[in-house]
């Protein structure tokens, strides 16, 4: 399908390339969040599960990805955006990310929530050198905390809004709208 689209005469390849990159930028934060949830799953990773420090670092990286994705989305929708407006988005996003981090730390000062609790495993199997993930049918069902559920709903809303706006802009440009 992709080959047919690229080889078809009159296909706006520049628009197509920018559209794919923009959608990838919008989807990257959500993929990173799901990877973080997987890396905190004790039943799957056992002793290799993330530490609090790695979770804090990854949370900061996700915040940066979300801000960059937001800037990318806004710049596609509004090509005339100025550097000062982009700086305002980045500063506002940074303040919001710090406020959220402080709020999460106040709610959970000892450790960040994990997706599932570690099943009863003999201590010999918790050795990092010999840990193997149990077969899928033996894994317990995922139990998300309320905080994780809320953030997944926020993430889903972000994806719907940002992805929808980018798709609308792509269609507008493809059918002859102004740049």
Distance between the termini: 27 Å
Determine the number of helices (DSSP H or I, runs of at least 4 residues): 6
Mean pLDDT: 80
Total strand count, please? 0
Sheet with the most strands, sense and barrel status = none
The percentage helix is 55-70%
Notes on the structure:
With 179 residues, this protein is mainly α. It has helices at 2-7, 13-39, 42-45, 52-77, 83-107, 146-174. Helix 2 packs antiparallel against helix 4 and helix 4 runs parallel beside helix 6. The two termini are 27 Å apart.
Task: Please supply descriptive tags for the structure shown above.
179 residues, 6 helices
Write the SSE topology.
Elements lengths: L1 H6 L5 H27 L2 H4 L6 H26 L5 H25 L38 H29 L5
Helix pairs in contact: 2-4, 2-6, 4-5, 4-6
In short:
The chain is mainly alpha-helical and 179 residues long. Helices cover 65% and strands 0% of the residues. It is built from 6 helices and no strands.
């Amino acid at each position: 399908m992709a080959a047919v689209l690229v080889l078809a005469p009159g296909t706006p390849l520049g628009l197509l390339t920018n559209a794919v990159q923009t959608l990838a930028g919008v989807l990257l934060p959500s993929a990173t969040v799901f990877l973080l949830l997987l890396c905190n799953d004790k039943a799957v990773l056992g002793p290799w599960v993330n530490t609090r420090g790695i979770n804090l670092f990854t949370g900061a990286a996700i915040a940066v990805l979300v801000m960059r994705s937001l800037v990318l989305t806004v710049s596609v929708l509004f090509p005339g955006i100025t550097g000062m407006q982009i700086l305002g988005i980045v500063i506002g996003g940074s303040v919001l990310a710090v406020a959220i981090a402080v709020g999460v730390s106040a709610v959970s000062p000892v450790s960040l929530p994990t997706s599932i609790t570690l099943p009863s495993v003999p201590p010999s199997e918790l050795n990092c050198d010999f840990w193997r993930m149990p077969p899928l049918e033996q894994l317990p069902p995922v139990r998300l905390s309320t905080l994780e559920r809320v953030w997944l709903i926020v993430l889903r809303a972000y994806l719907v809004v940002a992805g929808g706006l980018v798709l609308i802009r792509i269609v507008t440009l493809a059918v002859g709208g102004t740049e």
